[in-house]
Amino acid sequence: MELLSAFAAGRTKKWLTRISGGALVFWAVAGLAVRVWLPPARGCGPASAGSGSGAWCEGGRFDVVTLCVYGVLGLAAAVGSTLVVTAASQSAVRFLAGTSWPVHGLRGRWTARRVRHHLRVFGRLLAADPVDAVGTASAGPAAEPVGPVGTASDGRAAGPVAVPNEGPVGTASVGPAAEPVGPDGTASDGPVAGPAPAPTTPRLPTASQVLGTWEVTRAREHKRRYPRATRIAPTRIGNSLVAMTDRVTARHGWDLAYCWELIDLALPDRAAGRLRADSDRLTARAQNLLWAVLTCLAALTGGAVTVVRDDGGSLVRGAFLAAAVGAALGVLLLFRGLCAAVDVYCDSVEAVLVTARADIYRAAGWPAPRTPAEERAYGAALSGYLSRRGVQAPHTVFVPPAEPDAPAVFTLLPRPATATDPTTSSAPSANGGAS
């Protein structure tokens, strides 16, 4: 997906040699796994001098030089693997988005299966929150409009109109209106007024109604992470990204696949810093997810080799089992964290584009829109101009950038003389003395 080029400010383009905790755990497990692949320690002896295990047995005699060499090799392996995983994190997120999955052949069947699954989930969300295509909720029958004298708008007599009375806790209770009472306790027209109506207890919602409201709220929040049905992606991350691009196009008219480089250049420092922080968080979680997957594979491989060769004992087998279970749990938690980071990143992109709208148009020399309708039209024209396709808007008049304000020039002037100034008061006496 072209939108993933938004990670230009992230760690995938910086090639940092920052070693994360996932890398350290992986190399600890990988070192233990490599140890079980080597000849067993009990095989070292005079008989191994001419065999293939002689080099390992010679290397097992540690000295200062050997320790230094092993340390340098281990550090180089950790740094090099960190660079490889850092470069692969963008491809990993692109793969998890699912938009580049095959659509034909045997592998395309898996893609179609995942799309059908998300379509079913989207259908259940629509059923839980019935909102039509234009975004208006389904409502019950509308109340009949009543004329100024209690008749319907078509001339028929209107039904009884309920008059709200204020309840004991400030809620409106529906009941008959009380007659106005005079100062002597009688009604204003003469007869004695009847007893005041008893206060009514407000009806609280039932637990099922409250839970139903929660269900609708959750469905609405979850449905926000889905695009329209014709653009459903096969993965959770892909749906969040596609839904965000759809909302940006519907609101601003921009196609992020062509406008993102311009947006990245035009963002002010504060907005760019927020996107950079969210991008770094997303990339870091993708890297840790890769490290967790590699650690799980290394633990399973080392445990299998230990069982087959019957070397290492129960302690080593237990260590491999614990590492595999912990890595598998880490994969699950990190994937959920990666999905949450993608959602936060999408929300940040939308908020930043709203606040930096004027800066983006100013950087492009494009006339700024004044209404939402103009914004969608101008954004579509700008997208076509940048993509060299679609609406080119040949008659658009470019807006040159405003000239910066001239720096203020300060001129030091002599202080005006006053009667109380000691320097001016002493001047006449000095002149008089001189004369």
Please, could you describe this protein's structure?
It is a single chain. The chain has about 425 residues and is mainly alpha-helical. Among the domains are: about 1-40 and about 55-100 and about 235-360, no CATH class; about 105-130 and about 205-230, no CATH class. About 55% of the residues lie in helices and about 0% in strands. It contains twelve helices and two strands; from the N terminus they run ααααββαααααααα. The protein has helices spanning about 20-35, 55-60, 65-95, 105-130, 205-225, 235-250, 255-265, 270-310, 315-355, 355-365, 370-385, 420-435; strands spanning about 165, 170-175. A two-stranded antiparallel sheet has the order 1-2. Strand 1 and strand 2 (about 170-175) form a beta hairpin. Helix 3 crosses helix 6. It is extended, with a radius of gyration of 38 Å.
As residue ranges, the low-confidence spans are: 5-13, 132-178, 430-435
Rg measurement, Å: 38 Å
For the biggest sheet, the summary is:
2 strands, antiparallel
**What structural class results from the helix and strand content?**
mainly alpha
Mean pLDDT: 75
The number of helical segments is 12
What percent of residues adopt helix (DSSP H or I)? 55-70%
Query: H/E series, N to C?
Result: HHHHEEHHHHHHHH
Broad shape:
extended
